[in-house]
Amino acid sequence: MSTEAKFSGDSVIVGGGMAGLSLAIALHKAGLRVAVVDAAPLDSAMTSEFDGRASALAYTSWRMLDSIGVAEHLAPHAQRIEDILVVDGRPNDGLRPGGPGRDSLHFDRREIHSGEDGEPLGWMAENRWTRVALARTAEACGLSVFAPAKVDSMSRQGARARVHLDDGSWLEGAVVIACDGKFSRLREQAGIRTTGREYGQKALVATVAHALPHEGVAYEFFMPAGPFAILPLPDNRSSLVWTEKAAAADALRDMGPAGFQEALEARFGDFLGALTPEGPRWTYPLGLKMSERFIDDRLALVGDAARAIHPIAGQGFNLGLRDAAALADCLVEAKRAGLDLGSPAVLEGYERWRKGDSALLGIGTDFFNLLFSNDHASVRAMRGFGLGLVDKIAPARRFFMRQAGGETGDLPGLLKGEALSL
Prior knowledge:
Oligomer: single chain
Keywords: FAD, Flavoprotein, Monooxygenase, Oxidoreductase
Helix content: 25-40%
Mean pLDDT: 90
Protein name: FAD-dependent oxidoreductase
Structural class: alpha/beta
CATH architecture: 3-Layer(bba) Sandwich
Pathway: Cofactor biosynthesis; ubiquinone biosynthesis
Organism: Marinicauda pacifica
Shape: globular
CATH class: Alpha Beta
GO molecular function: FAD binding; monooxygenase activity; oxidoreductase activity, acting on paired donors, with incorporation or reduction of molecular oxygen
């Protein structure tokens, strides 16, 4: 067993995913001494075969990535979201060709960001390209990364916390940040309980090329089995997030090319022309998991370690970045003031900042998933009326666009596009 730390600094971040690396880069560039530990080499998550997912980046999230130097590497692979169309169902429930139905809600970025080249509602990027951009930025700025390295446990030594690896070595800092996903080992070891439930749904994720341009429009169709999202990617391509009951989603994943083509055309419609599926298909189980606490002794939870929600609002990665921005703000301010970064006062400030927003969004996505997955005629009529009403009220549309963009409440500097420094 090692008698000397492999790293000793301000913070150790466990988990080199997108939220973890974003936070690490932000803290490192602000002047803190940070290390990242991950069980897999960073380049193992950069291929199209890794998981196939793409993420919607809210405009405040893009500001953060721009402020820490990641956006310049990601921009060539990202697609602006100019409009969002939320639709209750599809014509004939998607059993015949067609496009969006009449019960819809249209969000146009020009209502909140004027000008042809104004800020979009967000950006779409395949996760593999986001990981590439983060890895390039981390390498360029000299971030300390230990990967592959498997974390065994965490311990506290006075005003320091240690992350013990399975080879007997360890790293230490004033605070440990768990970015190790919804099945967080550090959260479990800290005894932080979670609440939530499984939905019995899975999201089928796939990429599709189409003959006609999407013009930067993101579509979300609410179907009885769950949402069907068509999210714009560069070059006349879109990412699909197709929610079904678990068995049906797995059946779609395992279909042969001809069978999947037929099912895709029926559900997608013909409004973007001929469709060509690209690459593999994946399915992911959906559920809600909320941590009862976001902090413990010298430990902070970020991203899916703090909460995992339904993708219905496209907010998963954005919530992780909001966590990262708020925690970075707290830690940099504490460092500037000469405070102990892992003290209860500093970490409780982070928890107060983030827990309420997370709870509201978790409850909201849970409610909307139940509401829009209900096929009862009276419920469908109520949904259609509600969508139509909001669509006619400009202040309501602008409110929801700013909510989705993350521009609410006390905004951390990074989400305003401001770089942090000591």
